[in-house]
Amino acid sequence: MRKVNPSLKWFEAGNYLFLSLISIVVLIPFLNIAAGSLSGGNSILEGKVSILPVNFTMENYWALLKNFGFWKSFGITVYITVLGTTLNLTFTSLMAYGLARRDLKGRSTILLIVLFTMIFTAPIIPSYLLVKSLGMLNSLWAVMIPSLISGFNLLIMISFFQNIPDALTEAAKIDGSNEYRTFWSIVLPLSMPVMTTIGLFYAVSNWNGYYAAMMYLRDPGLFPLQVKLRQLITQDNAGDILTSLSSAEGIKMAAIIVATLPVMMIYPFIQKHFVKGAMIGSVKG
């Protein structure tokens, strides 16, 4: 039986302790907001709420549930996240598959352009004028199309595709498969770990999207959840949602929880693929 190095044991124990402390520090603000969303208004204003609810009530959530404007923004965010992430993955994977081919003409030039976009971002005014000239101003396309492909995610996916054995794609071509059929039938099924990882990156980015919506959208009926949340917090619009038993601060905290929970609930279901996808693209076979 192989002996375990005592110093390695102490390192692992210290590592677990350190990560546990970091996790607690990260969770405390979230628990405080969750407790506030379930507490009475006077308890919040008097500073009695820590990480446990005081004068437990669901009225803040009921008041939020009855507000049509908030849930319309929630639905718009779900739409942007689902459609936007689908488009992100489709175009990123297609571009990465082509650039993973070392014999592609102009590959180095295209990769340099991709790296350039990662170092230098487009200024605000030219970006705004471009979106306006394309007729996407004040439409949800303006939120999704400009960020269609992320250079960072593209490079990760290229690295993953390059690790897929050439023998598989060559065998498919011998059997008469063209490039599109090879991609959809051979490469894509093998790429679920990296697709899940990149999909999570894109989904979180789309869900938390705020900057593009503020810059390109003028119609309040098109505002996604994060913009609506900003209005609730900074402009004190929570007063329009108040009931006799709810509080403005409690409603704001309830809105933050509702905006945060969906992403947190998805992660445990894809954690296995996420870890595998994050690691496999960084190791050359």
Estimated helix fraction: over 70%
Mean pLDDT: 84
Distance between the termini: 31 Å
Order of helices and strands: HHHHHHHHHHHHHH
CATH architecture label of the largest domain: Orthogonal Bundle
Any idea what the shape is? globular
Structural class: mainly alpha
What would the CATH topology of the largest domain be? MetI-like fold
Radius of gyration: 24 Å
Please provide the count of β strands: 0
Strand content: under 5%
Number of helices: 14
Work out the count of structural domains: 2
Largest sheet: none
Name the CATH homologous superfamily of the largest domain.
MetI-like
Keywords: Cell membrane, Membrane, Sugar transport, Transmembrane, Transmembrane helix, Transport
Subcellular location: Cell membrane
Family: Belongs to the binding-protein-dependent transport system permease family.
InterPro entries: MetI-like, MetI-like_sf
